[in-house]
Design brief:
Helix content: 25-40%
Structural class: alpha+beta
Strand content: 25-35%
């Protein structure tokens, strides 16, 4: 059975399509965009050299474990902290998946 990861990317509002374009180029089939609100402190802004804006978008992308590293790298290059998207991304293992057709399992 195929193993999956859930990639979660958090970017400034308006940068979710850049994240999805980068993910699709590395094999992702799609994702879910959620509007979110971020919080932070002045100390975080100074430590990381970024301005924390409250309006965010969270992008959830379910992919096979073997694609996860390539997709995370592509997201970092296109919308990471050094970009205007000021994004972070991480992956979590997924123990069970339902709702995918068998033909998609080997391609996600």
């Amino acid at each position: 059975m195929e193993q999956f990861n859930l990639i979660i990317a958090i970017v400034n509002t308006g940068f979710s399509e850049i994240v999805m374009d980068a993910a699709r180029e590395e094999g992702a089939k799609g994702g879910t965009i959620i509007h979110a609100r971020g919080t932070g402190t002045k100390a975080m802004e100074e430590k990381y050299g970024i301005v924390i804006t409250p309006n965010k978008e969270m992008i959830l992308i379910l992919v096979t474990k073997k694609l996860s590293d390539k997709i995370l790298s592509a997201i970092y290059k296109s919308a990471g902290l050094a970009s205007d998207g000021q994004g972070i991304a991480f992956a979590l293992p997924v123990s069970d998946v339902v709702g995918l057709k068998n033909s998609l399992e080997g391609n996600n």
